[in-house]
Each structure stands twice: as structure tokens, then as C-alpha cells.
Amino acid sequence: MAKPAVFLIGADKGGVGKTTVARTLLDYFGARQVPTRAFDTESPRGTLKRFHPDVTEVVDVTSAPDQMRIFDTLGSADAKVTVIDVRAGLLSSTLQALSDIGFIELGKTGQITFAVFHILGPSIASLEEIAETSRFIGDANHFLVKNHINEAPFFEWDPATYQSYFKKIKDAHEITIPKLNEMAYEQVDVAAVPYASFVANKNAKGEVANYSFVLRGYVRHWLGQVWREYDRVKLLDLVSPKSENSLRQVAG
Amino acid sequence: MLFRSCVIVVASPRPRVGKTLLSRLLTDFHFQEGRSVAAFDLNAGKDALAAFLPERVIQSAIDGLKGQMALFDRLIADDGITTKIVDIGHASFESFFMLAHRFGFAGEARSRRIGFAILYLLTPDPSSVEAYRSLRSQFPEVVLVPVHNENFGVAQHRKRYGLTGIASVIRLPQLAPAVRKYVETPPFSFTDPRLAALDMDVDIELQHWLRRIYLEFRELDLRILLTDLKASIGPLIPTAP
Questions:
Q1: Whole-model pTM?
Q2: How is chain A split into domains, by residue range?
Q3: Nearest-by-CA chain B residue for A181
Q4: What gap in Å lies between CA A176 and CA A178, rounded to an integer?
Q5: Regarding predicted confidence, which is higher, B189 or B162?
Q6: Does the distance separating the beta carbons of A181 and B104 come in below 8 Å?
Q7: Which CATH class is domain A5-179?
Q8: ipTM (interface predicted TM)
Q9: Cβ under 8 Å to B: A residues 121-160
Q10: Do the domain assignments include residue B241?
Q11: Which of B:61-90 have CB within 8 Å of A?
Q12: Range of B223's domain?
């Protein structure tokens, strides 16, 4: 049986696309029939909950009762995968809190799978968070997610700068999220549905909608690229052992 | 399943091979058959489709998002138009099919009961042969029909393009020079009643030429229908264990 897996999505800097990445993760696991629940820490209002209301709870991750709602239920919840969208500015303090309660230690001992998606924007301020957060993460699965919210190339034109940030953390995996066309992004925002539902032309009630075919095409292509990145870093292997994946594939 | 409408794309990566002439003929053929038809022109210039059939052609462009939405969203819209012809022009060849593939146009068309056919004008150059093969692999379930424009000679393309078995080629017969000067001067519609006032020899030649082409188009109709039928009964046909 698969052990519980926790994906922490966050950044200390705001506006780098944390919720966007969390949404793509929920779509990714949903498309692969992996039961998943999510916690949105933008208390009292949650952006993630707007798009995935059925699986998302809004919590205050800094409060002990809400920490209990998340972490004490890992073993008993139907969903073995938990995605936590950490609000801007709280990544370091959340990691500190998880370290204090011994949660990160559980990941090290293999009782749970713990992965951190550190979302990075193309700015030095964002990249400077890497060293700070990696201090807590230790042996956890650490993903540095380059989210292309604009056309900026993440300093790849300057190898010295690039390597000083991205190559310093030896066990971190890089994930690249390409830029989504602005109009397509806004259209999904207005529709307030998961990306996968938008692509399938479905509204929040699951009924056939009337979204632009072209905008759906842009989202379809973009989501495909994001999911290929998740496949590349073998995300599915983290939530279910390889043998289970193989069985699932054989069973179709 | 029965297709409620059809999108026919006229394509070639090469310029001046007869795409616009073929698009004009298709547009007029479907109009004469009593169908509601709209044509979309991705070319610009005085010899473009829109110049010949200004009342039935919508000038289009796909280099920007708004233009892409105006074209592709309209192609799949349930707007009562039964036939939509797209003359994509050589300059838009690559981007049109890249977008169509990226957006999943063939699958979307099928789910909306829209037939999708590509009429591909054959030329002997290797890049065209390669582009044809690429279309066949990118759009395996689409009716991809090779077209031989005999105005450019009687070259045999079957071997070069790997057209084996029953893969039939639509032939665009050679146009007599006396007719050509009328046909190639825009605006011009093959459905214009004033054509009857042409010199009798020209009119006879033109009608004879049109009959041959329209016969090919009726066969194309059947081919699209057959694809539809095959897809419908496919699951009923037992497959070998």
C-alpha cells in the first residue's frame, strides 16, 4: 500500500504562480486517478479552493488546530496525496514549523513521502530564497520550479549567475513551467474551473461549456508541457511505488 | 454518427500550384449543390480567393491570437454553415497545421460531428513530399486527399508520394487557354449566370471542364461519408484475437 505523500507548494516571494502550479498538480494526479486532497493556506479566502472546491479546504497553516487537520489525518484520509498551497511569504516559516513538529523527520525515515515545490520567479529576490529554504528540506524531494510568468529567461544568459543559484543545491530537481498565453490564463480564471475541465470544455458543474476552442487549445498544449515535466521527474513514482504503477498500466 | 458539417482545407507548402483555383471550385461546387458554404482565405493580394469570391469569402489571419480565434473557433462553430473551405496559402501552411495539431483540431471536429478533409496539391519537390508524409502521420484519421493539378503537366506522383493501393488522386484537368483568361480575372464565380453569355465554344469548354471536376468532388463527398461510416461501424467489426 502506498504511503501518504505531501506536496508543499510555496515561495516567500509573492506573484510567482504558486497556486497555478498547485492547480496543475491537482489536475495531473486527477487525470491519473490518484486520489488527492488539497489545503489552501490563503485563509480566510482561498484561491485554490475557487478552482478545486471539491477537494480543497482553506486552513491557517500557522495554527495548531489546522496543522492537526492536515498532518494528523495523513494516514486515515482516503486521499493518499496531500497538496498544500502555502501562501506567499510563509514558505520558510511553514518549513520551520514542520521541522519543529518533527514532520520533516518523518520524511527522512521513510514513513511518508515529503516533497517541496519551491516556486521561483525570474528575479534575484526569488532565487535568493533557494538557499534559505533548502536549509530545512534536507533529504526531502526538493523541486525548484522555474515558473515562466513572463518572457524572462531566468538568467540562463549568464551561466555564472544561473549556476550560483540552481547548481548549489545538488539533490534538487529543476522543473520548468512554460508561460501560458495571457488571454487563455484569464479565460480559465473567469471560468473558475480546473485547467483539465477547461480543456474538456466543461463548466464547474461538469456541463458542456462554450469556451473558445483556440484558448482551450492553448491551455491543452501548455498543460501537456507541464505534465511532461512532471513525468520527466517521475512524480508518479513518488506517490505510488513502481510496481503499483506497472499494475495500473497493465490493467489499463 | 453522421457529420453535420465539413471543413475542407486546401493546402500545399508551395506557392502558385492551384490552391486558390481549387478553393474557388470547391466553394462554388458546394454552393451549387444547395449547401450553405463559407470560405476562409489566409492569403492576401489581388489573386487571392477573397478577390474572386468577395461575397462568400472571409479574409483571415492566424499570426495573432485574435485571428486564430476568429478562424478556428468559427470552423468548429455550430452556425448552420454546412461546408467551410479554407485556402491556407503556402505562407501559412506550417503555422496552420502546427496550430491545428497543437489544439487537437481533428479530435474536436470529430467530437462535434464535423468532417475534416485536407486536399493536398502534389508537386514533385522533396519538401512537398516530406510535408505530405508529415501531415499523414500528424492527422492519421483525417481524410487526406492528394490533388494533381494537370495544368502543370502530367507528372506521375504516385511513387514519389507512396500512393499505393486504392489511394485515389483528385485530378484538376487542364484548362483551355481560351477559358483561362476569363476564369483567372477576378472577381469570378463559376456560378455566375452571366457565364451563359460567353462565346459558345468557351462556355462548352468551361462546362465540360467543370463537369469533370465536380465529378471528382462528388467522389470526395463519398470518401468523407465512407470515413464517417467506417468510424461508426469500426467498433462493431470483430478484430483478430
A1: 0.89
A2: 5-179
A3: B65
A4: 6
A5: B189
A6: no
A7: alpha beta
A8: 0.87
A9: none
A10: no
A11: 65, 68-69, 72-73, 76
A12: 5-234
